[in-house]
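User: Hi! I'm working on a homework problem where we have to compare a predicted structure to a textbook description. Could you give me the structure for the chain below?
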Amino acid sequence: MINIREIRPEDAPQVRDLIRGIMETEFPADGKSFTMHDLEQPDKYYRGENDTFLVAEENGKIVGTVAVKEDTRDTALLRRVFVSKDCRGRGCGGMLMNRALEFCFKRNYQNVVFRGVDKMQAALKLCLKNGFEATKVPIQSDVKLTILTRNIRNAGPVQAAD
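Assistant: Happy to help. Predicted structure tokens:
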């Protein structure tokens, strides 16, 4: 059974291993381009009053993550959307998304924003299934940054789709 909960300090090594492993295997050319400073102590980095870092745990193992970081008083950034290959298609991403959106709704955010490159198809699809709308912004000739936004105040949280 998959349990969604807030991160604990002792989860940091598993979280780093999960995210780095996915980055190295699925995005080998891009992995070093993304900063990982927030993963050194994610339980502290995401401890602002309007921030959270959630993990999906199954049988004592971290199998997914999602984080919310305050960008402005009205806008939350959805970050670190990662699910292990073994757990994809089993509802884990949807459960993480639902909890993150509930958190944002309770904190009175107006909008939730996710930024990802086109290669992050699983995370982008998860966001789009859950009411986010896309705008593509070129940042380099060969890379496009996709910015997805969801107005949470008008629609409120919905049961997330995986």
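For your comparison, note the following. The beta strands are 2-6, 52-58, 61-72, 75-83, 111-117, 133-138, 144-151. Residues 2-110 form a domain with the Aminopeptidase fold (CATH 3.40.630.30). Good luck with the assignment!
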